[in-house]
Amino acid sequence: MPVWDEAQLSTPNRYAGPRVVKMHGDIHHPDRLVLTEDDYDNFLHSYPLLATSITAMFIDRTAVLIGYSLDDPDTRQLLALVKRRLGRLTRPMWTIQVDAPPHIVSRYERRGVKVINLPAIRGRSIGDQLEQLFIELGQYWRESVPESSVSSDDRVAADLRVPSEPSRMCYFAIPLELVPWYRDLVFPVVERRGMVPVIARDVLTPPGTVVNKVDALIERSAVVVVELGGQFSDYEASLAIARKPAGSVLLVTEEETGLPSNLRSYPHLIRSEGTEAQPEYFIEMFETWLTASQPRRSDGSGEPERLLHHREYGAAVISAVSMLEVTLNQQLSDSSRPSSKPTSIRVLLRDARTLELVQDPDEYRLLEEAVSARNEILHRGRRVSGTDARRYVAAIRNVVERVQRTF
């Protein structure tokens, strides 16, 4: 949401994405433009609320200045004010420059602004270099945030830690007030397809990484369902459409008019008040879409061994247990169990023993040991030796192949 006037500061952001404060006005509002020397000199007096709002951002956030020059007197005055008032308690500030000479770097640092000085690359503009920087930063966060995430659902944690496998996750970007409705009626459909429903609040990540978490979840999920109408869900929809293959994103609105015209070519369903009362039609249409859009999943065949080869022993154990869980769920699903609750791997192992798919007590103990090791890797950061990882993977591979031959 663009902000060029003080009166807009109290208005909520009605658009997806960040609020953009235009300190020096907007070309579409010429009366507000800051152009002349007098305009710059009088900025703090003419727009005190705007100056206060920007100063507050410098106080309680870590600022990264991009495309900023110390020749801008207004920003220079704001930085000086913060430094004068807070002294050593001023939060660190950074600026990204390209091939800045030493005297410019020193000028920034005298004002408490640390410089990230990128080397110039022949044939590439400053814009190209900054674009590449942000692409690499985005990739870094998508890879690192899942590593530090915590989820009560081990299946979600496993899929986040071993992204090279086909994902089982179905990400739901839905308002909090609709979560119970989706959990009761829609999530069981996803579970029956052998997939794992997940919402952002199910995954805990370090403070300040909510956007990165959503980005990673969308990136790692096989399919994405977005209920339009919320400020953040509209952003999630645009992100999912930009990232995911055609057909793997389902848009849901409460009524037909809630779907923007530019999105009507994408798969969508209407969740009207009547649907909430009698959801059978919605569920039927949702299952049809899920069946058509769900990517073909393998059982992870070969992935644990590949990870062993690269000495990724913890990831190999996670991958192998996930492969076992998927195989047993597919072959031993019990319609008598509550469909809203996924069957745990330990229950599936007991069922396999009852059906004499696992008869050797030593083999059964090794499988249980592998599951415990997987859990400790996920939740306690345990390191597993190559010897143990190979034992677990070999035992699981034998059981998976036995189950597949039996059924």
Task: Explain the overall architecture.
- By secondary structure, the protein is an alpha/beta fold.
- The chain has 3 domains: 2-119, no CATH class; 143-293, Rossmann fold; 303-406, Four Helix Bundle (Hemerythrin (Met), subunit A) (Up-down Bundle).
- Helices cover 51% and strands 11% of the residues.
- It is built from 18 helices and 12 strands.
- It has helices spanning 37-41, 43-46, 48-60, 73-86, 102-110, 126-147, 154-161, 179-185, 187-192, 210-220, 231-243, 273-277, 280-293, 303-309, 313-332, 345-354, 361-380, 386-406; strands at residues 2-3, 20-21, 64-66, 93-98, 113-118, 150-151, 169-173, 196-198, 203-204, 223-227, 249-253, 268-270.
- Strands 8-7-10-11-12 form a 5-stranded parallel β-sheet, with helices on both faces.
- Helix 4 links the parallel strand 3 and strand 4 (93-98).
- The chain is globular.
- The model has no long low-confidence stretch (mean pLDDT 83).
List keywords for this structure.
single chain; 407 residues; Four Helix Bundle (Hemerythrin (Met), subunit A); five-stranded parallel beta sheet; three-stranded parallel beta sheet; 18 helices; 12 strands
Q: Could you outline the blueprint of secondary structure elements for this entry?
A:
Elements lengths: L1 E2 L16 E2 L15 H5 L1 H4 L1 H13 L3 E3 L6 H14 L6 E6 L3 H9 L2 E6 L7 H22 L2 E2 L2 H8 L7 E5 L5 H7 L1 H6 L3 E3 L4 E2 L5 H11 L2 E5 L3 H13 L5 E5 L14 E3 L2 H5 L2 H14 L9 H7 L3 H20 L12 H10 L6 H20 L5 H21 L1
Parallel strand pairs: 1-2, 3-4, 4-5, 7-8, 7-10, 10-11, 11-12
Antiparallel strand pairs: 6-9
